[in-house]
């Protein structure tokens, strides 16, 4: 057997095993999430689904490797190696993320998420007057879905007491 192909096979088995182990960990860890009994979906549903899909994907990768179906080795990508990293953009994204983390506790999720969504979009080149209303709507939709769809309460902050935003 070709030593290069043997090495690739070991790597693919390791990848499939790692994905399955992460899935098992996700399922086990999801059992520790506290949930109210009155909600059918609850906060455990998503981690259970993700954990199960990870296990299925990991096992499928292992089975495919055992049957000899290895991934194609990449010859190279169409990447311009002369282009340098835009550290200013990276710094702006980090600043937006840090601002989001700080703002959640002080002004609540809707405002913090609006800052996160708008800041990331604007940093990556979106037109500000289009990005801002979309960020506001997206933050409010996430707040409402978590509060009513999943029964989880994201901090409403300055919107505490607003009926559809208060989980």
TrEMBL record:
Annotated keywords: Membrane, Transmembrane, Transmembrane helix
Domain of life: Bacteria
Domain DUF1468 residues, every copy: 15-155
Pfam families noted in UniProt: TctB
Residue intervals passing through the bilayer: 12-33, 45-66, 87-105, 111-129, 136-159
Cited InterPro entries: DUF1468 (IPR009936)
Record flagged with keyword rRNA-binding: no
Protein name: DUF1468 domain-containing protein
Species annotation: Lentzea roselyniae
Organism lineage string: Bacteria, Bacillati, Actinomycetota, Actinomycetes, Pseudonocardiales
């Amino acid at each position: 057997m070709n030593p290069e192909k043997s090495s690739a096979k070991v790597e693919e088995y390791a990848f499939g095993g790692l994905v399955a182990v992460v899935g098992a960990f996700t399922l086990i860890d999801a059992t520790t999430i506290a949930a109210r009994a009155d909600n059918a979906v609850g906060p455990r549903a998503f981690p259970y689904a993700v954990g199960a899909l990870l296990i299925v994907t990991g096992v499928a990768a292992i089975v495919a490797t055992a049957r000899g179906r290895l991934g194609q080795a990449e010859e190279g990508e169409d990447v311009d190696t002369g282009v340098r990293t835009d550290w200013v953009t990276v710094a702006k994204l980090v600043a937006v993320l840090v601002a989001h983390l700080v703002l959640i506790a002080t002004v609540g999720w809707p405002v913090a998420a609006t800052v996160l969504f708008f800041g990331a979009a604007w940093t990556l080149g979106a037109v500000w007057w289009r990005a801002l209303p979309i960020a506001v709507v997206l933050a409010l939709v996430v707040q409402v879905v978590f509060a009513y769809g999943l029964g989880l309460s994201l901090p409403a902050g300055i919107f505490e007491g607003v009926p559809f935003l208060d989980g």
